[in-house]
Amino acid sequence: MNQYSTASQLFDACGVLFGPEVNVSIEFLKYLQPSGIKDAYRCQVFKTHPDRAAALGQDEALLNDRFKTLTQAYECLIGAIKGDGRVLMQHSKPRAPEHPSGYRKSPKAPEPKPGNDHFYSHKGAVPKRKLLLGQYLYYSGYISWNTLIDVIVRQRRERPQIGQIALNWGLIDSDQLLYILANRKCSEKFGDYAVRNEYFTQRNLLALLYKQKKLQRPIGHYLLKYGLGPGLLEQLVKEQKRHNRNVTKS
What we know:
By secondary structure, this protein is mostly helical. It has three domains: 7-79, no CATH class; 114-157 and 217-249, no CATH class; 160-215. It has helices spanning 7-18, 26-31, 34-48, 53-56, 60-79, 133-139, 145-158, 162-168, 174-183, 190-196, 202-215, 219-223, 230-249. Helix 1 crosses helix 5 (60-79) and helix 6 packs antiparallel against helix 7.
């Protein structure tokens, strides 16, 4: 892709390269550097290269398609950055950020695809270890694999971001928020990068994580949308807690 990509194309490329946790805006693109793009690309290549299909336990053809999309995204972003670091784009109408801080609303999580869905094949044989609620329901045969993944993705996408909470608390300003998002490595968490570069302290990070957990909707909120009634869900939560107590004692 040439250096005159549209803002929408650059947004899509960032989504492929940096993942759903990064909320892209025009300001984010301004802070983007070749080194950050290359680090993200190398990280994603390790996860999607077709040569690693056997090691990853995934279909080679599917990985090949993902790898092509990843490479196109990388070339799009690298080609849009001039030698002085400025991003070049066509003057087309971009997707406007939906939050003054530059955060975009996360897209709706995809619905399960029946052809790729499955339930736990050994119903009743729940692993004898502590399980989170979603894991317990999957191993108990109440929800499918795709449902488990979907509820986890929905919960993660809708929870408040650490960077946004830090901004609200005045620990960082909007420019620092965008700089961290654009320059951290793809495998590095926002808070870890911020502490390492002394934007705030480890104690601040622990407080931010606690606040994020308190604000995050419980996974049961999402499970109700998959046919589990409140009464049944309450019963299953009790069973999950009983299961975890029993495996802890053994």
